[in-house]
Amino acid sequence: MKKTKELQKVEDQFEMFQILDEKGKVVNKDAMPELSDEELKEMMTRMVYTRIWDQRAISLNRQGRLGFYAPVAGQEASMIGSQFALDEKDWILPGYRDIPQIYYHGLPLHQAFLWSRGHFKGGQVPEGVRIMLPQIIIGAQITQTAGVAMGLQKDGEKQIAITYTGDGGASQGDFYEGMNFAGAYNLPAVFIVQNNRFAISVPVEKQSAAKTIAQKAVAAGIHGEQVDGMDILAVYAATQKARERGVEGEGPTLLEFLTYRYGPHTMAGDDPTRYRTSEEDDEWEKKDPLVRFRKFLEDKKLWSEDEEEKIVEQAKEDIKAAIKEADGTAKQKVTDLIDITFSDEEPTNLQEQREYYEKKESK
Amino acid sequence: MAQMTMIQAITDAMRNELKNDEKVLVYGEDVGNNGGVFRATDGLQKEFGEERVFDTPLAESAIGGLAHGLSLTGYRSVMELQFFGFVFEAFDSIAGQMARLHYRSGGVYNAPVTIRSPFGGGVKTPEMHADSLEGLMAQTPGLKVVIPSNPYDAKGLLISAIRDNDPVVFLEHMKLYRSFRDEVPEEEYTIPLGKADVKREGTDVSIITYGAMVQASLKAAEQLEKDGISAEVIDLRTVSPLDIEAIIESVEKTNHAVVVQEAQKQAGIAANVVAEINDRAILSLEAPVGRVTAADTIFPFAAAEDTWLPNDKDIAAKVKETLNF
Asked: Domain Transketolase-like pyrimidine-binding: where (chain B) (predicted)?
């Protein structure tokens, strides 16, 4: 394709925002968010915790003790940094990989495991926790986010709705429709695209002729930004600003986080060696979000190996306990399923089927 | 009591619910200032303001997504799909999303959404406007599907649909919008979802139908009466869930059944009704259950519409065939 000068001018405006470079050095001091030492350490704690959780989840999945699982290693800065910028009364509408964000927003770990096993109790979001369940249909959460944001706007709440999808999700009609609705109604919504370069196996270059995903905001008439998704400080700062914009009635924002998933798409048989080279993997591991943030914290004398070891142990213990709790939850029955199909009384067909399964399941 | 067309009764139901519950919102393409392409929301924006009754950008999937999101924040949506043939654009937001919300959250969240939409043949609309797609919706667990056949029922059913805590697809046959008036009380009343209604009592045969085919069946019953045949006409009103009890009660009385629908024959509501009769009342039958439907083709907009659609003569003929088996 030969791009016109006019188009190039638009595309060239979208440059990657970064605060910490790969070596953990601050390259954009002016953009440095205000965070206390405790908050900085908490962000690192959560990234370490999430990485251990990911390793344990992969191994539990291989043992057949976990259900559906989409690995997160590599994306910790994108996930943890953006959630860290939220208020607890903001809404999160996650994609299926975005379990760490909803965990830190209030969904107990054992429920995340139950959800992964398809157990209905995994979806019973605790009172006051403002999350939607992880979305399986790519992009459906994006139009729903416009709806949640509209509800918040109508109620006069100074909150936002934030949603996550991937680079593939940015090709869906719902992606544009959701941003367009949010723009048309000036809604407090933040749309995150974690561009991890592959939609299962299809590289982002094959998804679109657009140079960036961030520039797709222009078509919807909303603000868009491309962010180094391996840099937790940049992710945090960009999300915080987008949140502020939403809360102040200045409109929705699209943020593209450039990141990478080290593992397979999901644990259901995906083999990344079919579509990625080990050179590319190595290239991205050099950008690792934990490595660079650890260096940054060590330079500030805020982090030690001992501290990290404690978090690793804590994560392992928590996961063990959560799995135990999930294992101890009564097996889901078809009668449970019938009971939650409708809010009110079941129609005749379901009542009859309930009787049938009650007998079948009591055997 | 006022005389109302079905479209007026529908507007009246929405007005009633906008007054009744401040969480009720009415929106869709052209529903605001314009009052809807059929004027179903005429005057509502003026009366309740743009906050409650508003236009959406033109995107059916996002209208569904909007309703889903608004449910999570406690709103009760009445969303319009301008024509039900456009539902394919919104299919995921309805069948994949809101119909599953209560299940997906283990009963914590629910989607009190009414999806209003015009459909139905005989008015010579362009393609993808008239198709009877209720069978597709009826196969979706978690969804209710309502199709009124007259102004009185339309108001009572729509109020019930809006008050229902789960998504309800409310299909309005275009031919019925202004073809006749009914006595419709100005005060509120509800008609329970999932309950059929005997529109005409009879002893020889049960004609089980819904939507515009109720009028055709009543016309057929009048002709049949002249031939000494007493036909009962059951209006399902809600096609999912079915009022199985009412169907069986009537069939056990008449021992003959003819199921009538405007939709294509295979895998639809009529097939489901026949299966229920087969399961529960086969020994009461003196003849196989008759079926009057359209052909299993694409809806032939305009050109061959009138012959493609079932009519009162087709129904009367099928009744005679069933009785003379």
From this structure: 4-179
